[in-house]
Each structure stands twice: as structure tokens, then as C-alpha cells.
Design a protein that fits this description.
CATH architecture: Up-down Bundle
Largest sheet: none
Order of helices and strands: HHHHHHHHHHHHHHHHHHHHHH
Structural class: mainly alpha
Strand content: under 5%
Helix content: over 70%
Oligomer: single chain
Shape: globular
CATH class: Mainly Alpha
CATH topology: Growth Hormone, Chain: A
Radius of gyration: 22 Å
Amino acid sequence: MGVGVSASPGYAARMTGETSIRDAIRPYLEPAPLAALALGVSSGFPFAMIGATLTTRLAQDGIDKKSVTAFALVILAYNLKFLWAWIVEGVHLPIIGKLGQRVSWMLLAGVLVMIAVANLGFADPKADVMAVAFAAILVGAAGATFDIVIDAYRIELLEPRQLGVGSGMSQYGWRIGSAAAGGLALVAASRFGWSIAYMLCAAFALPAMLTALLMGEPHRHHELRARKPGIALLQAITGPFVQFFTRQGAWIVLGFIILHKIGDTLANLTFRLLFNDLGFSNNEIALYDVGLGFWALMAGIFVGGMLYARMGMKRSVMLSLILMAVSNLGFAVLAALGHSNGAMAAAVGFENFASGIGGVCVVAYFSALCDLRFTAAQYALISAAASIVGRVITGTSAGRLIEGIGYVDFYVVTTLAALPGIALYWYMMRTGLADTSVGDAGTED
């Protein structure tokens, strides 16, 4: 008689663990989330070119802090993109328009970004700072237009069940593009100068363009159709706003969108100023802010995906809001300690870890808010509103605040600035508005 061999508890546990790991990884390897990764790479790099990279370049060229932080207003193009998102939604391009509304605009916007970034590289801050400002505005406008298309393409390509995973992959891509372009710019600038550095970075527009060509028009894209072209264009202009603002509690949801990221935005655009004033070298910035920050963000996105799946949308969003607020205090500690590699590593690591969690949970919620008839325009409105107040405050007063109260108190203030957004989302959870605000992008089969 044969003797039955039963699996040991340890073996069973290992097999269960391996199965769980495979099950957790499998959704990330589906075509749509992988496409979201490539889209994110191209989305992140223009922002880096006019954000941290340009801040470092201006600071190294001796431009004063007030002027440097004023350049944050250039990024307002990302906050104002809802004003022209209707063009991407309703205007059909000749010739290449045959490839599809989203694909044709992806190609056009990508080319415009590459030209604008190369142009910024040839502008010299020492010779004419206003020429640099104008070139940066062009990058901001082109990059914001690229973002409009990329966000719409991502949301419409993903199934509702993939929004969390897709948001995570998009955030992976965004930080890969931002970190890789920022790191490449610093290294290339040290060896070949800023003009060559910016020209090399322009190639980061290609992943999104190639993805659109390979994947084709997203299957959930709802084309705006009317008997007369003028009617369709009118729908593209007014429809997104009418549909959003006629929802129950729309103004409360918009209030949360505006308030939730004030502290985070206010702090983020001043980190490179802090590093420069504390005497960190380009190599140290590349190692900690770009290198360590990148891996901390990767870990945060992975954890954020698990939290979103296990805790659900509401609780995971609330946790991410709290973590992002607290992360600013790490830079207050760094400012108090001075040039400390350990403190810089801890501050940058925790901030990026918290941003990774928030990038999955909050972006998934914002994506789910959209109506598939107006994805481009509505997500442009949502993402623009998410940081516009913080951007204006940063550009108009961050430099003066730092000079007036110092870095330590400044980062404490940015933490306090995040509290109203947390309180408003708590109210939305208690009243059920967090659930009822979701559009068909998050519910359609």
C-alpha cells in the first residue's frame, strides 16, 4: 500500500506566498498598465526640465532666490491647461487625425515638447533671464498639452479594475522620466553644458508617442459626435464643466481637489534651493534627491498599490494625505541640522515614499471622477486644480517666506497648510460623498 505524503505547513505557506506574489504582480504586467508606465515616463520629463532642473541651473548661475522661485509660475501652464483642453477633446487634426483623436494629438504634442525643451537649452540665464522665462513658458505650455493627451489616453485605455494599478504604473513612469531626465541633465551639464543636456533630455517624449502608435486609439474613448462640427466643438467646450458641476456635492469635491496638495506643492519646488544653500554638490543631489528618492518612491508606489487594494479607496486616500503632510517636517529637521547626508537621505526618502503612496491612491480617485465623454478636459480641470493654489503661493511668496522666517519654520508652515484638505476629505468620507462623486470612468464595465 502506498504511503501518502502530505505537504508540510512550511511548504504550503511558501506555495501560498509564491502564488500571492504572482497574483500581486500579474496585474502590473498587463498591456494597459505597461502602457501607462511608458506614458508616465514622457509625462514626467518636461516638468523636471522647468522644475528642479531649471531651479538648479538658475541657482548655479547666481540668480537670486526671489527670481528663482518666481519661475515656479511658469509651471502654472499645467494648472491652466483646462482652458485649452477642449481643443484636444474636440478639434480633429488633418492628415494624422486618421490615426485617431488621441493618437494624433499624442504625436503632435510630443513633437512640440521636444522642440520647446531643446529651445530652453539654448537660452542663457546670464545673458537674458527673460528669454529663459519665455522659453520655459513654451515648455510649460507644450508639456501641459502633452499631459492632457497622456492623462486622457491612460484613463481611457485602462479598465475600471485597472485604475489603481494603472495609476501606480503611471507614477512609476512619471518618476522614472523625471528622475532620469533630471539626473541626465545634471550629469550631462557638468560635462557638455546645459544646451546639450536639454537636447538629450528631449528624447524622453518618445515613449508616449511610440506607445500611442503601438496600442492605437484607446478602446474606451467616447468620440464626441454631432451633425454639425460646431455643435461637437461646443460640446467639447461646455460639456466637461456642465457634467461635473451638476453632480451632487461638486463644489465640495472641487474644494478638496484644490486644498489637498497645497502644502506638498509649496514645499516641493523649494527643495533644490534648500540643498543649494546647505552646500550640497550636484553629485550629492543626484545621489540622494534623484537616486535614493527614486527608489523610495518605487517602494511607496508598491506599498500604495497594496494599501489601495486592501484598505479600499477612501481609507487609503486618507492615509496618503496624512503621510504627505507629515513628510514636509523632515525637511524642517534637515534645515535645522545643516549639511547632513543622513538627514537629507531620511527627508528625501520619506517624502518620496509618501508621495508614492499618494500617487497611487489619490490619482486613482481623481481618474475615477471623470466622465468618459470628456476625459481629457475633466482630468485637465482636476489635475490643474490640484496644485494651482500651492503653485501661485510658491511663485509669489515662497522665496520671501524663506528669507523672512527661515527654512525650518517654512516647512512647518507647509505641513499646517495640508490640514484643511485632510479635514475636508474626512467630511467627504463621513457623508458618503467620496463614493457618490465617482464618474463612469471608475464604474463602467
